[in-house]
Structures are given as C-alpha cells and as structure tokens.
Structure to design on (289 residues):
C-alpha cells in the first residue's frame, strides 16, 4: 500500500515525514548523513513503534502506571503497551494524521479510554542548517484535561551528548517524588558518550539544554526547546545502535504526580486551551567550528 510522504529540504537538511504512520519523522539527513535510526521496512513502525525514527508523544509522555484513574469527573483507563507493563508515550504515535492547507499536520483523538477529545498539530520547518518543530495539544472537551506533549527521536550512535541539567529522575520506571542532583553517570554536563542502559529524565535544564555531535560524520547539533516546563529524557539501551533524546513537558509518572501535587506533573488545561512545545535543531559541520 502506498504511504504518504512529506519531504522538506534545504541545502543542508532533508527531512521526510510519514503522516499516515503517526506523523513520524522517518528520515533526517544532514550534510548527506542519516542521523535517525530508520528501518528499511516501514512495517517495523507497527511491530516496534517505540524504537525507530522520531515520533510525537501526546496526550502524555513517558511512563504511566496502567489502570483506571479518576481525574475530576472522568475515569481514565490506560492499558499497558510496553514490555515493562507501562502505559507509555500517549496515543498518537501510530495514528494517521491529516495534512492541513498550510502544510502542517493535524490529528483529533481521544473520547475513548482517554475520555477527553483533543487535537494535536505539528508544524515542521527546514531553513538552511535548522530544523524546527512546533507541537501543540489542545483540549476540545468541555472539562479540564490532563496534558503532556513531547517528541521522541532516536539518534544514531556513535554520538557525543551534553545535557545541561542540574537535577535528574534517575529511573523512569520508578521515579521518586523529587529529582536528585546530577552525579556519576547522570552528570552529562560535559560532552561525551552516554553510558549504556540509562533511562532517566533530566530537569532544571539550561539553555540550550542539549548538544549532540557525531565526530565520525563531522556533524554537530544544538537542541533548543521552548515550553512552559521543559524536561529531557535520554535512553541508551545497550542493545540498540541509537540513543533517544526526548524533550517533553512533564516528568515520568505524570498522573501520579498530578494526583499527589508532585513536581513534574501533567498540566491541566481548560477547554479550548493548549500547551505547546517548540524544538529547534541547529546543525553545523564540525570542521566549520
């Protein structure tokens, strides 16, 4: 079956999105080099949706304990969708999105086990050496809705990373109430290879929060993030040839944090209200520095 492809390019960048497959950023080629973990077979996006390309996370990010939770006057029922038993990364990563007349992408979802209807929009722009993504999540229901949004790229290894953050939740699977000061393998304030098998959320981030480099490819990137609250998740499974670097608007276990009034909780947005996440990747040739 043919798959809709949306391609944007500049002299330095070629980005290819698949609106039918979760608005996934399928390819990101910079100065002629592929920077995303991309499958040869598009069916991999259905078989292993969380480990390829770059996908949108909404109406929540990261892990949430599955089951039924009452928020306001509504019950939310989340089923596990990950081997560790979590309800992870929202609902929209595998759905078909619509193209808007302005070139952006739009999806309406919810009003099911997630009892609020919502809309997610994605605008992407390529300009010279810069890739910009603007994500917006809007509550279309008549009552306040919990809300979180993020983007989940898998960048190829080997790569160097710097995360300018003072605090971290070291384990996304069982995060504590409060973040801890960065230390040991979680102190990534100097560029270097990320240790294997981290899966954590960094907070109290600087600007820019993330810098990446691929010395073997001669490419570097600066990630800038715009949101009311900014968290950076990084995951480095030893079994994969890629690392995830995920800007998002809340911490792990967002429902628990919301119900217990803990830091890093999901936002509550009123009817017709939105939350936004802007991500810019500015690329350079390492030889140009």
């Amino acid at each position: 079956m043919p798959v809709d492809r949306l391609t944007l390019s500049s002299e330095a960048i070629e980005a290819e999105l698949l609106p039918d497959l979760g608005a996934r950023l399928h390819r990101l080629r910079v100065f002629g080099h592929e920077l995303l973990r991309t499958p040869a077979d598009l069916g991999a996006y259905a078989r292993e949706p969380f480990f390829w390309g770059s996908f949108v996370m909404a109406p929540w990010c990261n892990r949430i304990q599955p089951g039924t939770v009452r928020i306001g006057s509504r019950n939310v029922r989340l089923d596990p969708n990950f081997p560790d038993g979590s309800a992870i990364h929202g609902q929209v990563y595998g759905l078909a999105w619509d193209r808007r007349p302005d070139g952006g992408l739009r999806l309406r979802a919810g009003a099911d086990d997630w009892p609020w209807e919502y809309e997610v929009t994605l605008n992407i722009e390529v300009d010279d050496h810069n890739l910009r993504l603007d994500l917006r999540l809007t509550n279309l229901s008549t009552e306040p809705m919990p809300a979180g949004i993020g983007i989940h790229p898998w960048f190829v290894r080997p790569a160097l990373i710097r995360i300018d953050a003072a605090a971290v939740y070291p384990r996304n699977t069982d995060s504590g109430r409060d973040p801890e000061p960065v230390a040991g393998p979680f102190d990534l304030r100097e560029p270097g290879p990320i240790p294997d098998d981290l899966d954590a959320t960094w907070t109290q981030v600087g600007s820019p929060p993330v810098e990446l480099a691929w010395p073997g490819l001669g490419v570097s990137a600066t990630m800038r993030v715009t949101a009311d609250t900014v968290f950076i998740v990084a995951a480095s499974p030893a079994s994969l040839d890629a690392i995830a670097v995920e800007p998002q608007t809340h911490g792990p276990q967002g429902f628990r944090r919301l119900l217990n009034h803990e830091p890093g909780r999901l936002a509550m947005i009123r009817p017709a209200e939105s939350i936004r996440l802007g991500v810019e990747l500015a690329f350079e040739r390492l030889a140009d520095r």
